[in-house]
Amino acid sequence: MTKFEEFENVIARLRAPDGCPWDRAQTHMSLKNTCIEEAAEVICGINILDQTGDADNLKEELGDLLMQVVIHARIAEEEGLFTMDDVIQSIIDKMVRRHPHVFGDSDGPGTDGSQASWDEIKRQEKQGKEWTEEYLPDAFEEAKELIEAAKKRKGFDTKKAE
């Protein structure tokens, strides 16, 4: 068993009927605040690494962010939506598709590895799904609000001195 599989089993156990009441109660919606908070803490870990050379905080925070991915995938599996394997296969497919200069036909489109090639491949992938972009401005606004709420929970003053 890999460490990842072991971790998936830990999350499944936490979500089991005789697991942790808090973990069992979580939903995609209820985890939004911890998801954004953990992402911010990864940024903190990167900054600590950059400024001090100490990687311990980044390692810990990446684990916390990974928990967000695994618990969301577990909830989705319980709801019959998709599995962690589906999530992993999706990102594998995307990375291979967006890197034809590494994985594909060396004479095909996008083989120069440029940002323009990446953008064109991404544009083609999104055809027929353009409507999803309409949700992004609200998501960015919600993310800002969730960050402000996280700062308050952590005890940081969110108002600048005047």
Automatic annotation (TrEMBL):
Positions of the UniProt region annotated as Disordered: 102-130
Compositionally biased residues, Basic and acidic residues: 119-130
Keywords of the record: Methyltransferase, Transferase
NTP pyrophosphohydrolase MazG-like domain location: 26-103
CDD domains, per database record: NTP-PPase_MazG_Nterm (cd11528)
GO biological process, one term: TTP catabolic process
NAD found in the keyword field: no
Listed transmembrane segments: none
Transferase as UniProt keyword: yes
Molecular functions per Gene Ontology: methyltransferase activity; nucleoside triphosphate diphosphatase activity
Protein name (Swiss-Prot/TrEMBL): Tetrapyrrole methylase
